[in-house]
Amino acid sequence: DIQMTQSPSILSASVGDRVTITCRASQSLINWLAWYQQKPGKAPKLLIYETSALESGVPSRFSGSGSGTEFTLTISSLQPEDFATYHCQQYNSYPWTFGQGTKVEIK
Amino acid sequence: QVQLQESGPGLVKPSETLSLSCTVSGGSIRGYYWSWIRQSPGKQMEWIGYFTSTGTTNYDPSYYNPSLKSRVRISVDTSKNEISLQLSSVAAADTAVYYCARKTIASAIFDIWGQGTMVTVSS
Question: Strands A4-7 and A19-25, how do they pair?
Fold first, then answer.
């Protein structure tokens, strides 16, 4: 299985900050990587797929980049509604696997 | 818009079979791929498997995570717009929040999720 490692596990930030989360894969994913946002007790929400494609309705302050084994999710200016946990997911090969999550909390 | 709602017992005894349902509202089950994903406390999400609902029941295939394949069955009841998960011979390690999700047809991303249901395995 492809192992996915996110860093950091917890990120403390303030409204307006630029935030970057990293996801590393144990094998090359080419560009088959997605990002999800999860708030407590809520359904996870697809933000980005194919490394950098924004899901419909997702604000443009979210962006994704990377290739191969290293990928990043960037929030250009953190908003109050962005405090949540973010998960990466690879879909290059079976079984599809997720990172352990990065919690973005209020500083 | 399409919404998913998981339901089922919150407590299951070790060695028994976990059975969950996911009701799809606001859209049809037919023609889509339906998946189950779980998250055990303190661990990353784990993809369990998916079922393709083309409407031709006899030929609808399912695909499972090899780590769970021998114990898992996912099925779809198009008359009820419902997706089911059965996981047999459960143990404490199967304690998790279980999510149903819609997998896109073109790729293995999950564009719609339920809120999840917590299942604890304990005697």
Answer: antiparallel
